[in-house]
Amino acid sequence: MNFERNIIVTGGAGFIGSHVVRRLVRNYPAYRIINVDLLTYAGNLENLKDIENEPNYLFERADICDHEKMSRLISRYNVSGIIHLAAESHVDRSIRDPFTFACTNVMGTLSLLQSARNIWEQSPDGYHGKLFYHISTDEVYGALPFDSSLFTESTPYSPHSPYSASKASSDHFVRAFHDTYGLPAIITNCSNNYGPYQFPEKLIPLFINNIRQGKPLPVYGEGLNVRDWLYVEDHARAIDLIFHKGTPGDTYNIGGFNEKRNIDLVHSLIAVTDRLLGRPQGASLPLITHVTDRKGHDLRYAIDASKLQRELGWTPSLQFEEGLERTVRWYLDNEEWMERVTSGAYENYYREMYADR
């Protein structure tokens, strides 16, 4: 079957990546979507069981740091677009193991950039119709004070954790390849995502599961740190829009316009989860446990997504309360998924299936 476009999505078995892959597979049957994922602990192909047999979906187990393998994939499938989501993304893990974050986030991105550049430069139409789309984070900007200021696309970078430093470096490499070689590239910096299929080391799915099981809810410090929350399907919709209509060489911030203090978020999670479980109001409040604050914990992140709204017409479709309700319901309705992820059972089948690839 001949496809109109062949697009690689790296990290497509992960949280955000699986939502992007699903959206592209369903909305663009004329595109072949190639999910490239190494299947590390956060990569779960069970997230995509509903589309794994679609004729325009293909999975390739591969390490983005393997430059030769990336070059072969781009060449073999005549890839014209790369949506790059593969990354180590958990700040706590980056504090314990910064080297892994540098390897994957920096060298992996550089490997992809070099592969795309070499293959595309040699193609008959050069860079025409090609795009390297790099998904990054608002954490590269550092921290904001408790006022009305927001991160814009021109905010200077000031990363404070090994994770954000590795993402900042990868962003700089993408811009350098655009400026130096003319590689058509777009960068987006997003706020905290939440929604279905998120690996339960992250705050929202972890706390939903702990509330369900009556386990402690560890809150860093006093819980006064502020984050902007973006529903993952709204993020996937923004990625789709920017991939098709964004301007190469540009950066776009994607935010949910939903600033919440961590402690307020925890109270909201408790209220929704207890209600849906049929428990008395506030029953799980005693589970809140304040723990020593994380090293280098930024005070506040907040995204100004007005450029994306003004130029491409994107706005979040959900208010935070509705998104949180949907999210809690999904995790409570999918206890088997949560059990398989937390126990590690999800790893066995697909890891063995693709062990030799």
Describe this structure in words.
By secondary structure, this protein is an alpha/beta fold. A seven-stranded parallel β-sheet has the order 3-2-1-4-5-6-10, sandwiched between helices. A three-stranded mixed β-sheet has the order 7-9-11. A two-stranded parallel ribbon has the order 8-12. It has twelve helices and twelve strands. Helix 6 (203-213) crosses helix 8, helix 6 crosses helix 10 (320-333) and helix 8 (262-276) crosses helix 10. The mean pLDDT is 96. Helix 5 links the parallel strand 5 and strand 6 (185-190). The chain is globular.
Give a short summary of the structure.
The chain has helices at residues 15-27, 67-76, 91-96, 98-122, 162-181, 203-213, 232-245, 262-276, 306-312, 320-333, 335-343, 346-353, and strands spanning 5-10, 31-37, 57-61, 81-84, 131-137, 185-190, 192-194, 217-220, 226-231, 251-254, 259-261, 288-291. By secondary structure, it is an alpha/beta fold.
Ends apart, CA distance between termini = 24 Å
The SSE order reads EHEEHEHHEHEEHEEHEEHEHHHH
The CATH architecture of the domain at 5-194 and 230-257 and 297-320 and 347-353 would be 3-Layer(aba) Sandwich
Helix content bin:
40-55%
Q: From the alpha-carbon coordinates, what is the Rg to the nearest angstrom? A: 20 Å
Shape: globular
Task: Report the sheet with the most strands, covering strand number, pairing sense and barrel closure.
Answer: 7 strands, parallel
Number of strands: 12
- What proportion of the residues form beta strands (DSSP E)? 15-25%
CATH homology-level superfamily of the domain at 5-194 and 230-257 and 297-320 and 347-353: NAD(P)-binding Rossmann-like Domain
The DSSP helix count reads 12
Which residue ranges are poorly predicted, with pLDDT under 50 across at least 5 consecutive positions? Answer: none
Strand order in space, largest sheet: 3-2-1-4-5-6-10
Give the assembly state of these chains: single chain
Average pLDDT works out at 96
